[in-house]
């Protein structure tokens, strides 16, 4: 699992760096830890510390992104499924940022249905 450092927790920690928790064997015991850059040095931090401090570390969600000029599908504003090619423009980046980018029509259709349901449920709560 990957995390991103969002707040410095000791001097020289690089905010924005991504760290990955990996299994490490020490003697007869297994540990989960991550290596964090601290200026020119590296320190090891246990996964328990990382998971116990969400104000310092946030999980990194890895999502599919098409290659340049690769095709993708997205949900349009009326719930219809749109098709586009990644050209690294602001529209592409915006869709990616909010998670509105899919490999298959089935994925896009499922997302469209969930979005519609969430919006209608929200309007029910307002009344």
What can you tell me about this protein's structure?
- It is a single chain.
- The chain is an alpha+beta fold.
- The protein folds into 2 domains: 2-59, no CATH class; 71-126, no CATH class.
- Helix content is 28%, strand content 32%.
- The protein is built from 3 helices and 8 strands, in the order βββββαβββαα.
- It has helices at 47-52, 90-97, 105-126; strands at 2-5, 18-20, 22-26, 29-38, 41-46, 57-59, 71-75, 81-85.
- The strands form 3 sheets. It has a 3-stranded antiparallel β-sheet, with no helix packed on it. A 3-stranded antiparallel β-sheet has the order 3-4-5.
- It is elongated and about 55 Å long.
- The termini are far apart.
What topology emerges from the helices and strands here?
Blueprint: E1 2-5, E2 18-20, E3 22-26, E4 29-38, E5 41-46, H1 47-52, E6 57-59, E7 71-75, E8 81-85, H2 90-97, H3 105-126
Antiparallel strand pairs: 1-2, 1-6, 3-4, 4-5, 7-8
Which strand order do you get reading across the main beta sheet? 2-1-6
Broad shape: elongated
The radius of gyration computed from the alpha-carbon positions, rounded to a whole number of angstroms, is 20 Å
Which residue ranges are poorly predicted, with pLDDT under 50 across at least 5 consecutive positions?
none
Question: How would you state the average pLDDT, rounded?
Answer: 88
**How many strand elements?**
8
Q: Which structural category do the helix and sheet elements fall into?
A: alpha+beta
Counting H and I runs of at least 4 residues, what is the number of helices? 3
Distance between the first and last residues' Cα: 41 Å
Total domain count:
2
SSE pattern: EEEEEHEEEHH
How would a crystallographer describe the biggest sheet?
A: 3 strands, antiparallel
Report the helical percentage: 25-40%
């Amino acid at each position: 699992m990957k995390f991103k450092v969002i707040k410095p927790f000791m001097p020289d920690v690089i905010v924005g760096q991504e760290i990955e928790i990996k299994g490490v064997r020490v003697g007869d015991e297994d540990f989960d830890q991550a290596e964090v850059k601290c200026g020119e040095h590296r320190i090891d931090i246990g996964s328990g510390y990382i998971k116990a401090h969400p104000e310092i570390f946030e999980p990194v969600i890895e999502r599919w992104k098409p290659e340049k000029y690769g095709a993708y599908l997205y949900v349009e504003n009326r719930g219809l499924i749109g098709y586009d090619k990644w050209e690294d423009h602001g529209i592409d980046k915006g869709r990616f940022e909010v998670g509105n980018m899919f490999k298959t029509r089935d994925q896009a259709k499922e997302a469209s249905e969930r979005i519609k349901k969430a919006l209608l449920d929200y309007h029910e709560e307002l009344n």
